[in-house]
Amino acid sequence: ERLRKTKNGGVANKLPHQVLRRNERERKRVQQVNLGFVHLRDRVPQSTSSKKLSKVETLREAARYIKHLQDILR
What we know:
This protein is mainly α. The protein is 64% helix and 11% strand.
């Protein structure tokens, strides 16, 4: 059995299969987030740089592009 500390300082038992399931869920969640960033990068216009944007840069460029589109509509 695996022991881990809880948020309130206690100790909780985690069975190996529970840990494996939790880790797998987290891997899938991270994959989905990363896939979302890939799709967002594909839809945000970039400068001529072929460098892949970081997640933060992608969010900034997406916000800038949304503002640009809003300005066009005004």
